[in-house]
Amino acid sequence: MEASSWDALRKQARKLEAQLDERMTSYRRLVSSKPDGSVADLESSIEHLLKQLQQINLQMQTWVSSGGSQIISHTLTRHKEILQDLSQEFYRLRSSLRAKQERSSLLLEFRDYDREKADIEGGADSAEHALLKEQAAISRNSGQMDNVISQAQATLGALVLQRSTFGGITTKISNVSSRLPTVNHILSSIKRKKSMDTIILSFVASVCTFLMLIYWLSK
């Protein structure tokens, strides 16, 4: 690929990271305060940007695997770390928000339930009382399930990033393995030449010693 392709991918990655950073700042404020109806839209926007950034990182990984330099490889690693940090923080904040919403919902339900219970104890039908208790139990279970699902999504996001990283390592190992036969051939040639040089030097040294011996005996 041409260098401009890598530059274009890096430009897209930086743009998405800047957009994510801006939205995550707004999301942190909403989670720390009382959330309103805009939370769902913001969460959807952040998830969309995270998926886009992940796709850009995968394209950059393909570029590096095709023969990128060590500097480019380090740059890609940094972009992956940024994506992983943003993903983990988003899923952690979302889980915290879900727990907060669940607690708020349960408190509301308990207040409604207490009012209904007072009405029931004042002479309301016992069947309606049972239905209200069942509804409260179902709401609590639903909130717990939402929390578990959020945690599972956070784990899935981390696993996807790890799989992408390991895939890049496997590709690099394959590239190195494909080049090993050529390297081994060069090393074997060097070794053979070194052995031949040693033999020649030994032969020359032996001849010189023999000639010196004959000269010494002839005196």
Automatic annotation (TrEMBL):
A GO molecular function held by the record: SNAP receptor activity
Pfam families membership: V-SNARE_C
Principal location listed in the UniProt entry: Golgi
Record's subunit section: Component of several multiprotein Golgi SNARE complexes.
Family: Belongs to the GOSR1 family.
Biological role: Involved in transport from the ER to the Golgi apparatus as well as in intra-Golgi transport. It belongs to a super-family of proteins called t-SNAREs or soluble NSF (N-ethylmaleimide-sensitive factor) attachment protein receptor.
Protein name in the entry: Golgi SNAP receptor complex member 1
Organism for this UniProt entry: Zingiber officinale (Ginger)
